[in-house]
Amino acid sequence: MNTHSSKLLTDAVDAFSTLPGIGRKTALRLTLHLLNQDVSATTKIANAISTMRNHIKRCERCNHISDQNFCSICEQKSRNNGTLCIVESIRDVLAIEETSQYNGSYHVLGGLISPLDGVGPDQLFLDNLNDRIQKEHIQEVIMALSPTVDGDTTTYYLSRILKGQGVKISLIARGISFGGELEYADEVTLGRSILARTLYQLPDQA
To answer: Would you say residue 198 has pLDDT above 90?
Structure first.
């Protein structure tokens, strides 16, 4: 129901309220704040969002976000490219980078296998994973996925398709409680979980 005197205001509130964690009251405060700013300020924000959405890319190597064909992490010559950290999303890359405890490369899946939600392996960024492991001479693959049912399902699936590749597969230590998500873990806990990673064995090999 439109309780505002302006449909334009209502439309702006509706747009803000579609963002995660933004309710209608917060959306209204943001809208009124922008309304009280100079036009140039709101235009700058609008242009930045529009430019980002239209021109940001996914790294051709790891699927992380980038302004160029390859992201800034993949461009760093000092990284240990013999280690590959597999994560669900770009948020997890940012969280791990904040710990300063990992200096290898990444592979962003863009999601987790979730049969209940209808998400299968074909909907993840997996096409170049085997090629990367071979061409980049990867020695260790770290499964840095959230300790959830979907995370464990994805770890199992990936471990099956990587079997026979000659790489060590490890899991981050469970300093993060089951059901938690990597992006919400504090830096110390996440950093220790990476350093204390353990060897992963497929269930039928245990």
So the answer is: no
| Among 96, 100, 150, 163, residue whose Cα is nearest residue 124 | 150
Average pLDDT, whole number, for the chain? Answer: 87
Q: What was the pLDDT predicted at 179? A: 43
Residue 206 is predicted with a pLDDT of 46
How deeply is 145 buried, as exposed, middle or buried, from its count of CB atoms within 10 A (0-12, 13-18, 19+)? Answer: buried
* 193 CB neighbour count, 10 Å cutoff: 22
The conformation of residue 119, written as its DSSP 8-state character, comes to B
Structure tokens at 43: 């235009």
8 Å CB contact between 66 and 56: yes
Check residue 100 and give its pLDDT. Answer: 87
- For the segment(s) 78-205, the CATH number from 3.40.50.300, 1.10.10.10, 3.40.1360.10, 2.60.40.2890 is 3.40.1360.10
